[in-house]
Amino acid sequence: MGGTSKAFILLGGKALLATTVGPFEECSLVDQIVLVVSQEDVERCWQLVRDEGWTKVAAVKEGGPRRQDSVAQGLRALSPCQWVVVHDGARPLVSVQLIQAGLEAARETGAAVAGVPVVDTIKVVGEGDLVGDTPPRESLRAVQTPQVFRYDLLRQAHYQVTQDVSDDAAMVEALGHRVRVYPGSPTNIKITTPGDLTVAELFLKIRASVG
Q1: C-alpha distances in Å from residue 21, one per residue of 101, 135, 174, 181
Q2: pLDDT tens digits for 89-139?
Q3: Are 192 and 126 in contact (CB under 8 A)?
Q4: How far apart are CA 183 and CA 52, in angstroms?
Q5: Is the N or C terminus of the chain more exposed, i.e. has fewer CB atoms within 10 Å?
Q6: 159-168 pLDDT per residue, tens
Q7: Burial class (CB in 10 A: 0-12, 13-18, 19+), 126
Q8: For residue 1, is pLDDT > 70?
Q9: Closest CA to 57 of 72, 39, 77
């Protein structure tokens, strides 16, 4: 994004982070929100909280060097609770329905992640760029956030798992716990490049047109 903070890039005329947080503020099952941002964005984020009139934001914390370090910062800032919903600020098209679905899916195992079927053929590539395996697409999911966990389970995972991981579910899996995958949304995209912003703008317009 050319060095610009993704949290405050305009999407639909407002800060991207504002669009992301809105459904969590709206969801009746969410009691508190902790925002974890870069050091230079902390005060700017508090100003956004005031401007948007959010009432559930309990803290704005500075993130760590790794994704899991940032999540741990957020966990430490939460008041005692039973469930935690972890979501990427760069996925602004999350919905109240997706949050609720994750909380429902996590009831049985204590852990659930949003995922969508993989449409491309995936090759596992080894040394020399040679194909080692072609897993069946039917068993593959592209994982998104929200990811929902029992609070005590996620705290345990962050305490015991120290190696680098790509998401919180991997930490819980490393403890031997089952993680359920529930249906995500193809529109729940992560903003990584300027082209993603264009796609997100289109999805927002479609969402607005259908109410």
Answers
A1: 17, 36, 29, 23
A2: 999 999 999 999 999 999 999 999 999 999 999 999 999 999 999 999 999
A3: no
A4: 30
A5: C
A6: 999 999 999 9
A7: exposed
A8: no
A9: 77
| Percent of the chain at pLDDT exceeding 90 | 92
Structure tokens at 200: 């997100």
Please say whether the dihedral angle defined by the alpha carbons of residues 130, 190, 95 and 169, taken in this order, is positive or negative. positive
Q: Domain limits of the chain?
A: 6-206
The size of the chain, in residues, is 211
| Strand partners for 131 | 125
Instruction: Select from 156, 196, 187 the least CA-distant residue to 173.
Output: 156
Q: What are the φ/ψ torsions at residue 186 (nearest 5 degrees)?
A: -65, -20
Burial, 111: exposed, middle or buried (Cβ in 10 Å; 0-12, 13-18, 19+)? Answer: buried
Residue 155 clears pLDDT 60, i.e. is over it? yes
Burial zone of 102 (CB within 10 Å; 0-12 exposed, 13-18 middle, 19+ buried): buried
Give the C-alpha separation, 75 to 60, whole Å: 12
Architecture per CATH, domain 6-206, reads as Alpha-Beta Complex (3.90)
Other residues' Cβ atoms within 10 Å of the Cβ of residue 88: 18
Q: Strands, E, within the chain: which ranges?
A: 10-11, 14-15, 33-37, 57-62, 83-86, 111-117, 124-125, 131-133, 141-150, 180-183
Token digits of residue 208: 């607005």
How far apart are alpha carbons 174 and 83 in whole angstroms? 19
C-alpha dihedral sign at 173, 177, 151, 159: negative
